[in-house]
């Protein structure tokens, strides 16, 4: 990896700051403070995750999923500290893309930027679809029922109808019966059934319009919605505590560690969003000081809320009943508290809207930064003269999110989002090690607390190996039963994890690496090993498409190449 290779040409911090503040496209409005940033972070984190995917995670792992939230939060804290250091060093929009440009060079920056497009766009598709489910449920509470074919994607409806034909109505869940009925009643063009999730598309359109109008309006709307949804979450915790039955917490981990870890994608999806704060760095009044505080504050607040609400949910009903899309409303209905269920349904619509707002805010700013560097077409860097927002990029984001949300199902997108995010998080943690090694960290107004990993990383590596050899007989037996092809297919990431840990042990000894960024790399990489192989295949295809675009346009048009 030669420093002189055009693929790994890097931008200095001074170059990035100069490009951000002297561009011909115009500047962004600097209006955000710590409270606004914390609000945006909570808006992103306490969204579709706590109102929908938390149910599936609890169904798979039981009450022990509360511990998975703690473990995932620890992984996010390591990463958040690394993000905070970068944000204080390079206080511009672009998030992990910009940080990779400084630490690893242009090719890695492009790969991260392309992965972030996947994270933000796909996350918003999930959020929009989840919003639609709660919105339709809320309307039913007011006696308004939308036609089924306007509230569901074609694949889900078709699968439910086919299951009805094979198994009969008695074998279908209530949701599947509604989906099958929607398929049967849908208008047709020839043999094609017209099915679309209209609420998901419309809410994306409305949020995109708000983000287009300006950061001040978006900030005000976000702050109001965050206050409301935190109040609702606290209400759920306090009211639900009176209906907790301790016997529902036994067994605590009914499906063992494997069952708990199967919820990694759903639980991690609940935390995705704290990094979106860093995309608004250029709109902060004092990013070097405010960004680090905001990231840590919102992570601590959200982790406490998640753990408490998971314990309340699994205490109010048996974990086996939580495989539903609206678990918070469901547990109160199950306990005869229909009024509370109605309050939750209404407020969850507002809560999920705020998450949609933050993701829709972050995506255009990453595109804008990539365009400034010449890696995307110039129109993506266009700043609206009146609203001071990246106007063209915001409109494109609306289409990229809104159209798939109209026609696709949610399940598939959750895992795919996590793949791109883990990838970005690992490179940000690795980037901090680079900053420290090159002495660039000296100019950071916030630094990751230094814990010398010279011996610690290697000692923990040997203890982990020793622990598996002593207590992991089941794991060893499982590996022995796999063929070479099966190991490559299902365990390749696990092998990469151990090789990475071994490599980092050696490098930590040689260069006195800080232990916390190393811990961030390893925890994120370990969580990656729990995701399905199919998601990785799609992610690789997505990266291949991105590389074609880079080499056909960005490689030649890059401003570093022009210089």
CATH topology of the largest domain: Amino acid/polyamine transporter I
Rounded to the nearest angstrom, the radius of gyration is 24 Å
The CATH architecture name of the largest domain reads: Up-down Bundle
Taken in chain order, the helices and strands follow as: HHHHHHHHEEHHHHHHHHHHHHHHH
Summarize the main sheet.
Answer: 2 strands, antiparallel
State the shape. globular
Helix content: over 70%
Name of the CATH class of the largest domain:
Mainly Alpha
Q: What separation lies between the terminal Cα atoms?
A: 21 Å
Strand order of the largest sheet: 1-2
Overall average pLDDT: 79
Going by CATH, the homologous superfamily of the largest domain would be Amino acid/polyamine transporter I
The number of domains is 3
Count of strand segments: 2
* Total count of helical runs of at least 4 residues: 23
Q: Uncertain segments of ≥5 residues (pLDDT<50)?
A: none
Comma- or semicolon-separated keywords:
23 helices, Amino acid/polyamine transporter I, 563 residues, mainly alpha, 1% strand, 3 domains
Structure, described:
- This is Cationic amino acid transporter C-terminal domain-containing protein.
- It is found in: Membrane.
- With 563 residues, the chain is mainly α.
- It has 3 domains: 6-142 and 199-440, Up-down Bundle (Amino acid/polyamine transporter I); 154-195, no CATH class; 451-562, no CATH class.
- It is built from 23 helices and 2 strands.
- The chain has helices spanning 13-21, 34-45, 48-61, 65-89, 95-103, 106-141, 154-167, 174-185, 198-213, 215-241, 256-261, 264-271, 287-316, 327-334, 338-372, 391-407, 411-438, 456-471, 473-481, 484-511, 515-528, 533-557, 559-562; strands at 188-189, 192-193.
- Strands 1-2 form a two-stranded antiparallel sheet.
- The chain is globular and about 65 Å long.
- The chain starts with 12 loop residues before the first helix and ends with a helix.
- The model has no long low-confidence stretch (mean pLDDT 79).
């Amino acid at each position: 990896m030669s420093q002189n290779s055009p693929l790994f040409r890097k931008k200095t911090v001074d170059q990035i700051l100069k490009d951000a503040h002297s561009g011909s496209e115009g500047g962004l409005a600097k209006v955000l403070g710590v409270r606004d940033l914390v609000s945006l972070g909570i808006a992103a984190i306490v969204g579709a995750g706590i109102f929908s995917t938390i149910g599936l995670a609890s169904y798979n792992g039981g009450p022990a999923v509360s511990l998975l939230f703690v473990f995932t939060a620890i992984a996010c804290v390591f990463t958040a500290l690394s993000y905070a250091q970068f944000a204080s060093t390079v206080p511009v929009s672009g998030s992990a893309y910009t940080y990779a440009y400084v630490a690893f060079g242009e090719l890695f920056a492009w790969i991260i930027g392309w992965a972030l497009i996947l994270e933000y766009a796909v996350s918003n598709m999930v959020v929009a679809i989840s919003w639609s489910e709660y919105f339709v449920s809320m309307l039913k509470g007011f006696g308004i029922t939308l036609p089924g074919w306007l509230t569901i994607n074609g694949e889900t409806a078709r699968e439910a109808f086919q299951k009805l034909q094979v198994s009969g109505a008695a074998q279908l869940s209530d949701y599947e019966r509604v989906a099958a009925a929607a398929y049967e009643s849908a208008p047709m063009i020839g043999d094609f059934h017209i099915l679309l999730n209209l609420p998901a598309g419309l809410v994306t359109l409305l949020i995109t319009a708000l983000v287009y109008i300006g950061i001040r309006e978006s900030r005000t709307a976000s702050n109001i919605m965050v206050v409301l949804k935190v109040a609702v979450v606290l209400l759920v915790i306090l009211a639900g505590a009176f209906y907790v039955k301790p016997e529902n917490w036994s067994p605590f981990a009914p499906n063992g560690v494997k069952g708990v870890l199967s919820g990694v994608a759903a639980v991690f999806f609940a935390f995705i969003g704290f990094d979106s704060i860093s995309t608004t760095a250029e709109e902060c009044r004092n990013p070097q000081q405010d960004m680090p505080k905001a990231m840590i504050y919102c992570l601590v607040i959200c982790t406490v809320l998640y753990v408490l609400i998971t314990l309340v949910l699994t205490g109010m009903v048996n974990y086996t009943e939580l495989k539903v899309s609206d678990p918070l409303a469901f547990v109160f209905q199950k306990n005869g508290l229909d009024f509370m269920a109605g309050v939750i349904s209404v407020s969850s619509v507002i809560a999920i809207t705020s998450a949609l707002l933050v993701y829709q805010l972050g995506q255009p700013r990453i595109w804008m930064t990539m365009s400034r560097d010449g890696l995307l077409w110039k129109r993506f860097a266009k700043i609206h003269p009146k609203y001071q927002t990246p106007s063209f990029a915001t409109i494109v984001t609306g289409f990229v999110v809104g159209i798939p949300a109209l026609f696709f199902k949610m399940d598939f997108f959750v895992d795919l989002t996590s793949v791109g995010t883990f990838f970005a998080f690992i490179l940000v943690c690795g980037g901090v090690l680079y900053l420290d090694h090159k002495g660039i960290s000296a100019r950071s107004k916030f630094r990751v607390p230094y814990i010398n990993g010279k011996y610690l990383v290697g000692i923990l590596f040997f203890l982990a190996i020793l622990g598996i050899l002593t207590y992991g007989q089941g794991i060893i037996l499982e590996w022995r039963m796999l063929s070479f092809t099966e190991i490559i297919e299902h365990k390749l990431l696990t092998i990469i994890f151990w090789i990475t840990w071994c490599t980092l042990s050696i490098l930590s000894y040689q260069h006195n690496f800080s232990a916390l960024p190393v811990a961030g790399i390893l925890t994120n990489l370990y969580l990656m090993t729990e995701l399905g192989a199919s998601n990785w295949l799609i992610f690789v295809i997505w990266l291949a498409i991105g590389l074609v675009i880079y080499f056909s346009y960005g490689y030649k048009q890059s401003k570093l190449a022009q210089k």
